[in-house]
Design goal:
The protein has about 230 residues and is an alpha/beta fold. It has a single domain, classed as Rossmann fold, CATH 3.40.50.850. The chain is built from 7 helices and 9 strands, in the order E-E-H-E-H-H-E-E-H-E-H-E-E-H-E-H. The strands form 2 sheets. Strands 3, 4, 5, 6, 7, 8 and 9 form a 7-stranded parallel β-sheet that branches. It has a two-stranded antiparallel ribbon with strand order 1-2. It starts with a strand and ends with a helix.
């Protein structure tokens, strides 16, 4: 659908079609990269990545974690920080706030416990001892976490956001990154969501307002050129 005035008009395009038209517009100005970036890998945990284990898991690009590992490794080699967030809650979900009151099923987000397999990072993730790893409770990797002060300490001016879901925690983190004053990059192939329509619709909105949505190769090229 296309918005004309206040009326939504069906135009037959898919979310992917609209996304490709938006990022293909050469006239749209970009934030660009600064001088030093951080890779922020959001919730690449088994609850969302292990389609062989959990029905809450999803996959958009089968090489997602390979791409995440690639740019994380390149960033480390250039002495740029790599961050991994996860989400989990107390057994009674009392630390989930009002968010924990909406659903209470066996596979709900609020039932990811600290000591559960759903909380563990996907074993395919190449996490190094120098990386920052922490558990969060809300969608954004910034909310009530050490991330903001960590990025200040490392004199970062650009945040590269990966992980899932594109429409949830990736989006929330990207919006907060911009709000904290960072140039924000979202590599397309490094993000995933429950359905292609959510994925591309939110990438479109991020590109229009909050971030540079780029092929992962753009991040690779920038890091290799440093």
């Amino acid at each position: 659908m296309t918005l004309i005035g206040t009326k939504m008009v069906e135009d037959g395009r898919t979310a992917r079609d609209i996304f490709e038209a938006v990022i293909g517009n050469p006239e749209r100005k970009k934030f660009g990269f600064g001088e030093k970036l951080a890779i922020v890998n959001v919730d690449v945990q088994q609850a969302y990545t292990r389609t062989d284990m959990f029905k809450t898991a999803y996959e958009t690009n089968p090489n997602q974690i390979d791409y995440i590992n690639q740019i994380s490794s390149l960033a480390r080699a250039k002495n740029m920080p790599v961050v991994w967030s996860r989400v989990a809650y107390k057994d009674d979900a009392a630390d989930a706030g009002v968010w924990g009151t909406r659903t209470d099923t066996e596979d709900s987000l609020q039932n990811i416990k600290y000591d559960s397999d759903r909380h563990k990072l996907d074993p395919r993730c190449d996490v190094e001892a120098v990386d920052l790893e922490y558990t969060k409770r809300m969608p954004s990797a910034f909310f009530e976490t050490p991330l903001a002060s960590y990025l200040v300490w490392h004199a970062v001016d650009t945040v590269v956001v990966t992980g899932g879901s594109t429409s949830g925690c990736v989006r929330a983190t990207a919006v907060d990154a911009l709000s904290h004053g960072y140039r924000t990059i979202v590599p397309i192939e490094t993000c995933a969501d429950k359905h292609e329509s959510y994925h591309f619709a939110n990438l479109t909105d991020l590109q229009l307002k909050y971030a540079d949505v780029e092929p992962v190769q753009a991040v690779v090229d920038w890091l290799e050129a440093r």
